[in-house]
Automatic annotation (TrEMBL):
The keyword Electron transport does not apply. It comes from Sulfobacillus benefaciens. SUPFAM superfamilies: Glyceraldehyde-3-phosphate dehydrogenase-like, C-terminal domain, NAD(P)-binding Rossmann-fold domains. Belongs to the Gfo/Idh/MocA family. Residues 4-123 form the Gfo/Idh/MocA-like oxidoreductase N-terminal domain. InterPro entries: Gfo/Idh/MocA-like_OxRdtase_N (IPR000683), Gfo/Idh/MocA_domain (IPR050984), GFO_IDH_MocA-like_dom (IPR055170), NAD(P)-bd_dom_sf (IPR036291). The lineage of its organism: Bacteria, Bacillati, Bacillota, Clostridia, Eubacteriales. The keyword Hydrolase does not apply. This is Gfo/Idh/MocA family oxidoreductase. Keywords: Oxidoreductase. One of its GO terms (molecular function) is oxidoreductase activity.
Amino acid sequence: MDTVRWGILGTAGIAHGAFLPALREVQGGVAWRVGSRDLGRAQVFARENGVLHASGSYQSVLDDDQVDAFYIPLPNHLHYEWAMAAMNTGKPILCEKPLTGSLERTRDIVRGARERGALLWEAYAFQFQPQWQRVRQLITEGAIGELEEIHGTFNTQLHGEQDVRWVKAYDGGAFNDLGCYPVHVTQLLMKSLPDHVVARAQMREEVDEAVWAALTYPGDATMQLLMNVSFCRRYDTFTRFVGTEGEIRVDKMYHPGVRDCVELLQKDRVIREFTMKGQLSFTDMISHIHQVMRHEAEPTQLVTEVGLATAEAMELVRSQWTVADSARSDGGT
Ligand SMILES: NC(=O)c1ccc[n+]([C@@H]2O[C@H](COP(=O)([O-])OP(=O)(O)OC[C@H]3O[C@@H](n4cnc5c(N)ncnc54)[C@H](OP(=O)(O)O)[C@@H]3O)[C@@H](O)[C@H]2O)c1
């Protein structure tokens, strides 16, 4: 396969803001078709973003025999239906995070993917970046001793009342949109699920606009995740990995740039490593998928390997949180 022809479901902001620029950077792939609920919108999107074909439905993208792989950047509640439908084609799929807004539906997808041997990835771009790979290597090699705490933040300012994230029926809310990140980071490092959760969700109308949670993990020394996410604060993804012998600090955990570093603090020294080479956030993820499709690499981070534990831990948090109404106009936690 010389060129991977991508089919894109929907004219999403993340498709033109992150996926397509990275696809151009990777090379070896082409944006072949975009499908939208509205043909005119698909045509404009295709023209503005260099997609070769446009059509007026998502199904038309799945039905296009020329497409080699699908990207699903739809609102969260549509991931289930379209990931399931895409799996029936037997082609690789990159579905946006969170895979679904419920454990039950994620279980279904993971079961379906296992049965079909599907190549299905959830679009956590950080998993494929050298920054995360270095953090994980340092932790597994014992550079900070035993891991005792992860402090994970993902705050952002959500502008616009029309955003799909404000709609409960679309599986909106800060925990689905942002909380999945620190939970996923933690589950990638842990072999077990949390055994205890304390959590608080601050609601704005029908969805959580901010969530604070503490999750503890079983073991000889208890590991804990302390996380906070919010739609109402300055952008911040600072993450700390605290161990018995030191700690790792990462300023831009999920979309790092060339100036962002991994900071390792040990007893008598601080080491800063700049791991990103200037590539866009989605570049390593798309590059990996292309390599797998060309049989140049074994697939890693498939949903069948790493998707379920995150969904299980998230369900536990949801089941335990106490609810508070937004008390302040800025909605701070
Ligand atoms: N991995 C990341 O770093 C990252 C970053 C941001 C967002 N995301 C994820 O990407 C997905 C899309 O987010 P986004 O911010 O790009 O969303 P968006 O700009 O609102 O786009 C969503 C697209 O879905 C389609 N759609 C179908 N039903 C819809 C409905 N009822 N209301 C609105 N749009 C509908 C629309 O395309 P048509 O009208 O053309 O059909 C729309 O363009 C979410 O799952 C989000 O969590 C991931």
